[in-house]
Amino acid sequence: MGCNSQRHSPRGALAAVALTAASIVGCGGSDGRPELAPVSGTVMLNESPLAVGQIVFQPISGGQPAVGRLSEDGSFTLGTYGDDDGAAVGRHRVRVTSYSTQAGESDAEASGDSLGELLVPERYANFSTSGIEVSVLATGNAPFVIKLEDLPQDDEDDGLAGDDSGDGPNGSLPAGPAPEDANEPSAQE
């Protein structure tokens, strides 16, 4: 017989392959994508559903954002890599946009690549000024309720997070490490 006369059982080889595959997959998958969890909810503007637009959850730790289109009742379901596959588990900054051209309104000034008039206060269209941060849990996410208020800028501190306007442990929070109790999946502005 040759130099390597040991015989390997098929069962042992299969176990080795399975163990190697399990170590490669880990928590986020072999493709390097983060763990995703289903996310849905509703966007309200002045206590009425926002009937058109888009909501984006951007992971604070970086990575691919999750995007959802608003339905007529203000509801949304997020997708990161495909439709409705969810959002990365962890803390996110949120932005909401809604334009007159999405609402089917005729806008004389909307031409070329113009989206028309912004239908939500401008501060909500930017992650850094929306003041909305949420936590996406690995399991058990209740539908998010994102409440937007159409208040004049002069009546607000500065439009940034940390103005004590959020209700509950997952309302508007300052950027940085998430508090240990900030796991309730709803956000308010």
Automatic annotation (TrEMBL):
Residues 151-166 have a biased composition (Acidic residues). Residues 148-189 are annotated as: Disordered. This is Carboxypeptidase regulatory-like domain-containing protein. It comes from Posidoniimonas corsicana.
